[in-house]
Design a protein that fits this description.
- The chain is mainly beta.
- The chain has 2 domains: 3-77, Rossmann fold; 86-193, UDP N-Acetylglucosamine Acyltransferase, domain 1 (3 Solenoid).
- Helices cover 11% and strands 32% of the residues.
- It contains 2 helices and 24 strands.
- The protein has helices at 11-22, 68-77, and strands spanning 3-7, 26-31, 41-42, 45-49, 60-63, 86-87, 92-93, 98-99, 104-105, 110-111, 116-117, 122-123, 128-129, 134-135, 140-141, 146-147, 152-153, 158-159, 164-165, 170-171, 176-177, 182-183, 191-194, 199-203.
- The strands form 4 sheets. Strands 6-9-12-15-18-21-23-24 form an 8-stranded mixed beta sheet, with helices on one face. It has a 6-stranded parallel beta sheet with strand order 7-10-13-16-19-22, with no helix packed on it.
- Strand 23 and strand 24 (199-203) form a beta hairpin.
- The radius of gyration is 17 Å and the shape is globular.
- The protein starts with a strand and ends with a strand.
- Bound molecules: acetyl coenzyme *A.
- Acetyl coenzyme *A binds at residues 66, 124, 142-143, 160-161, 176, 178-181, 192, 194-195, 201.
- Residues 66, 124, 142-143, 160-161, 176, 178-181, 192, 194-195, 201 line the site of acetyl coenzyme *A.
- Pfam families: PglD_N (PF17836).
- Keywords: Repeat, Transferase.
- Residues 3-77 form the PglD N-terminal domain.
- This is Hexapeptide transferase.
- One of its GO terms (molecular function) is transferase activity.
């Protein structure tokens, strides 16, 4: 069994650990920069200490943090870490799908042919991503999100739980789509869009 470290000791880490275990990985522990988490455990796996523990380790690691910008910043901080992807055996991922380093795909997700997932992407529980989609680096599609064919989610886009995107739509960089929203027109970068149909309600800085 290959050994792997988990980075992040929050709720998302529980699902990452469950996914890794189901996929046959040997989880050797958790790292988190918050001192209050040290000595605790996540699903029975000990939090050994801060992220500097990644320096010099020969083990692979998974970034188990749901926030897209935080994943981006940690990946930049540790360029020499070998980030591994994790796919739950109860996810359905077509053999033509490309999966980048550090990307996690949780139970019940379905990913259809010729979709491309970048690095550090999260396809959360039960999300469906249909044919020919592109999810760039640091994208997170929350549980139950449904993407039609040919959807493009640019770097850092976050789609809230249960959101829906119609065919061929583009959501530009670092934009957030609110829970339950239905995206029927492409969305610009760095904004928050909500509702049915989704409309921009706020511009953001990052
Ligand atoms: C396993 C996991 O847990 S994965 C994590 C999944 N997490 C999610 O899906 C979270 C999704 N987050 C949301 O939908 C949030 O509501 C956000 C990000 C869109 C907005 O959050 P905030 O900026 O805090 O917005 P806030 O709660 O202040 O609401 C602002 C306005 O937007 C409206 N609004 C917020 N979210 C939505 C939504 N999803 N759909 C429609 N309207 C919404 C509010 O009703 C409010 O309207 P008002 O000004 O007329 O009263």
């Amino acid at each position: 069994m290959s050994k792997v470290l988990v980075v992040g000791a929050g709720g998302h880490a529980k699902v990452v650990i469950a996914t890794l275990r189901a996929a046959g990985w040997d989880v050797i522990g958790v790292l988190d920069d918050r001192p209050e988490s040290w000595g605790n455990s996540v699903l029975g796996y000990p939090v050994h200490g801060g992220l500097d523990g990644l320096k010099g380790t020969r083990h692979r690691a998974v970034l188990a943090i749901g926030n897209n910008a935080v994943r981006r910043d940690i990946a930049a901080r540790f360029p020499n870490t070998e980030w591994t992807s994790a796919i739950h055996p109860a996810a359905t991922v077509h053999e033509s799908v490309q999966v980048g380093p550090g990307t996690v795909i949780f139970a019940g997700a379905v990913i259809q042919p010729d979709t491309v997932l970048g690095s550090q992407v999260i396809v959360n529980t039960g999300a469906t991503v249909d044919h020919d989609c592109v999810l760039e680096d640091y994208v997170h599609v929350a549980p139950g999100t449904q993407l039609a064919g040919g959807v493009q989610l640019e770097e850092g886009a976050f789609l809230g739980i249960g959101s829906v995107v119609t065919p061929g739509i583009r959501v530009e960089k670092w934009t957030t789509v609110g829970a339950g929203s239905v995206v029927i027109r492409s969305l610009p970068a760095h904004c928050v869009a909500v509702g049915v149909p989704a409309r921009v309600r706020e511009e953001t800085k990052s």
